[in-house]
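Posting for a labmate who doesn't have an account.
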Amino acid sequence: MAESDTITRNAKSNLAFTLMDLPDEKRIHMAQFYAFCRIVDDIVDEPGMTPEERHSALNRWTDIISLKREAREGIEMEVQKLVSELQLDIAPMLELIDGCRGDIAPKQPANRKELMAYAYKVAACVGITSATVMGASPAAKNYAIALGNALQLVNILRDVAEDCRKYNRFYLPADDMELFGVTQDDIRQQRYNYRMRQLLAYEAALAEKYFCEAEELYQQLSVEDRNALIPAQAMSLIYHTILQKMQTDEYRVFERRYSVNNFRKLWFLLRARLGTVNMPTFPSVADWGFFRKDSPNSENTTPDKQ
């Protein structure tokens, strides 16, 4: 068994689960790309490494995907082969490494613009490359960015307590926390109160905006692109369900970790395959007043695209 398959199977992630829908060749390629993402993330998160060792390991991966260093047998050779065979644009992969590198010495985003710049690197860039590997055309790029942003915001909401406890990381923007009167110490002490719920609901609305945007963009794609992106649409359904669970439960993120069981994941994969993906509860983006340009709390939440 290839090392990438082992890494993907052991991860038991939502993305790994949806890959079963792909044809064999694309599934193998996505397993290779997923394994690369998993390794880069683990370099930053796993205990037992100094900051210098983490930076060095990330530098090596930068050289590997840039084809500047001879790959070791195993996952490094698999990823180099993936880049060469598919002639991948490695810019998003390099952005991912750079985004993960920032978590070695984490800094809380000051505002939503900084938050979304981070989300672009660690999630939207994963979506951009994933769409290519799955066989979608360049027309799917904006969809991949919007969905990546949505998924990352759900992760941030769900993992507020864990990110603080394990890594001393705070991804909720400082401006937003100040707006609702929530401090870092409130998160450390897991103070679940009205102000905390309102803050998390405010960030959840931003996630809903990106889910809505992604769905609108998906429906504009060609049939071929939509078929190629079925695993991504299944991910959208899974993560939107997690978000809905948090909303219904009033964001008790200090008490539990929200998830979706395998039976529902299979159902969402089937729904995506049948082309019945729709999210009727989504209002139009224009209906969220605080996202309008003339609102005092609005910001440009999308990073510049190079």
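Reply:
Got it, the structure tokens are right above this. Residues 1-105 form one domain.
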